[in-house]
User: Fold this.
Amino acid sequence: MRAEIVSMTADNLDENAIARAGEILKKGGLVAFPTETVYGLGGDALNPLSSKKIYAAKGRPSDNPLIIHIADMDSLDRIVKEVPEKAMLLAEKFWPGPLTMIFQKSDQVPMETTGGLDSVAVRFPSDGVAAALIRAAGGYVAAPSANTSGRPSPTTAEHVEEDLGDAIDMIIDGGAVGIGLESTIVDFTEEVPVVLRPGYISLEMLKAVLGEVRMDKGLISPDSKIHPKAPGMKYRHYAPKAELSIVEGETEAVTEAINRFALAAEEREEQIGIIATEETFSRYPRGIVKCIGSREEEETIAHNLYEVLREFDQCQVSEIYSEAFYTPRMGQAIMNRLLKAAGHKIIHVQGEK
Ligand code: AMP
Ligand code: MG
Assistant:
């Protein structure tokens, strides 16, 4: 079976195709769709068989729970036990948007959807195509990122087709996504809210609303024995086929080090891949150099990260070196994904960042 591909935008919905996609989901099928973060692989969140199909299509470990997507606040009550007041404050500020919140689940949510956990992750996306699909499907769509498990998340419908074109019923092509990194996840099942995955909504933005909020210890010390609380954060992820390393330090030292690796590779009659920025692109005379965006506009770096990682899979390189991107607001999220893609391989060339 090859997935049917339909194209539309939020301003120009194909109501007919949305209705058909809704029917596919209600019957237990799978539909990939755009959101403002990355493309999602949707199934009926309240149907355990749909969740099983999602895991199978992605090759995702079944202990890695799915996020339930809703399209209005009224839908929340049916799937959670209670919503703490602080979570309501966050919802008022950031929903619909790139924020996922974790609550105690109700009996309506099958264990298959939550990977066996008593809690459930919920997101209310702002993308108009996503909202229309969720409504057409009956209100509750379980959707992990629409990539094969371990691969970079998809930011275009082409990426979805590449990974899952043979495994699902339909792909809704809504063009390139806006943000390009997955949602920020905040856990409300503990006394103090905990960030389980950094995203577009930064710790500072959360603090401004919640006051007290902390980062999951498993995120802060990724090499230690402390497991991240979000089961998905413990897996290697987003990895390109070539070996990726991050080179960190003062800009001059970073570009010099990467150029040395490029020269050494050239002497072996090989080429390395280089992830550079607009600011440094012209400083790399050797290797296959890709520009990820501008440090002056960190959104561009977030937006292009997965695309660039995927592009290197089409190149003849066995090693990729990336600059580090500790940008002011999204740096935490960008570096979280990049470090995972690199299996935490960092080369420090000087003390400073
Ligand atoms: P993805 O849908 O691919 O963006 O991944 C969803 C992320 O949310 C994974 O890292 C999951 O482990 C995490 N997640 C989903 N539900 C829960 C939950 N109930 N508790 C903790 N983490 C969760
Ligand atoms: Mg994912």
Residues 251-267 form the longest helix (17 residues). Residues 64-65, 67, 102, 114, 117, 119-121, 144-145, 182, 185, 196-197, 229-233 surround adenosine monophosphate (ligand 1) (CB under 6 Å).
